[in-house]
Automatic annotation (TrEMBL):
The protein, known as: ABC transporter permease
PROSITE patterns: ABC_TM1
Swiss-Prot/TrEMBL keywords: Cell membrane, Membrane, Transmembrane, Transmembrane helix, Transport
Primary location group: membrane
């Protein structure tokens, strides 16, 4: 690679970094502004908006509600997605392509169309808008990501290990629990964190299927309709820090688990 190409790639890289992080930094800074309106210049600074986030019962309740939905929908999607991955990977049977296509379909459908379809189908099934409907929609949307990640991990599993376990008298369930499942743990953990963050940040499906109690993205949207204020920046910053911390922890934990599994 020539020196000119390296300089060009460096410029593209830093331009992308600025494009992504400058708006985030501005959002964080505006949360410290001692005024009811955002914008420059910032004449004085305060922590009141951030302290107010944790003192606001509505925000804390909504945050807890969103985390509960994310955790429950992730658990469902991990169980279903892993089961589908084990069913499909390495097997050839009639209807496999159809099952695979239906599995990944929720990830390909645009969010607004998916949300409308879920709302119509929930009404046909008699499911009332609220926590249950949101968990159902988030879980269905997240299953494809779990299945794809677990299938990719399964494709690298040496078949000789399973065959050796079967030769030693292990039945399929014991072979799965002793050989396959421990090998899948890094992939399952990575997919779980990804689905957790997807569900936590999901606005469209939460908006269409939510009841009287909003999730955090819906609450931020509702506050935006009454005008921008540093309070919104503070709430968004807290959500950003929470998701970033979970992502960083998950990346390190998954890397360590993957190293232990392969060693």
């Amino acid at each position: 690679m020539t020196r000119g190409n390296r300089i060009l790639l460096s410029c593209i890289y830093w331009a992308f970094v600025l494009y992504v992080f400058v708006p985030l930094m501005l959002m964080i800074l505006m949360g410290f502004k001692d005024s009811k309106f955002i914008g420059f210049p910032i004449k004085s600074w305060t922590l009141d908006w951030y302290l107010g986030v944790f003192a606001d019962a509505e925000v804390v309740s909504t945050l807890t509600y969103s985390i509960a939905i994310a955790v429950l929908s992730t658990l469902i999607s991990v169980v279903v997605g892993t089961w589908i991955a084990v069913l499909l990977e390495g097997r050839r049977f009639l209807g496999r392509a159809a099952i695979f296509g239906l599995t990944i379909l929720p990830a390909l459908v645009p969010g607004i169309i998916s949300a409308i379809a879920f709302r119509i189908y929930a009404r046909l099934l008699g499911i009332e808008p609220g926590m249950g409907a949101i968990i159902w929609a988030h879980a269905v949307h997240n299953v494809p990501f779990v299945a794809l990640v677990v299938m990719a991990r399964l494709s690298t599993l040496p078949k000789s290990q399973i065959e050796a376990a079967r030769d030693l008298g292990a039945d399929p369930i014991i072979a799965f629990l002793r050989i396959t499942f421990p090998y899948l743990i890094p992939a399952i953990l990575g997919a779980s964190i990804f689905c957790l963050l997807l569900s936590f940040d999901d606005f469209v499906r939460s908006f269409f299927l939510g009841g009287y109690e909003p999730t955090l993205p819906v609450l931020i949207f509702a506050k935006l309709r009454s005008g921008m204020s540093p309070e919104i920046n503070a709430i968004a910053t807290v959500a950003l820090v929470l998701t970033a911390a979970i992502g960083i922890w998950a990346e390190r934990f998954t890397r360590r688990t993957n190293k232990d599994t392969n060693s």
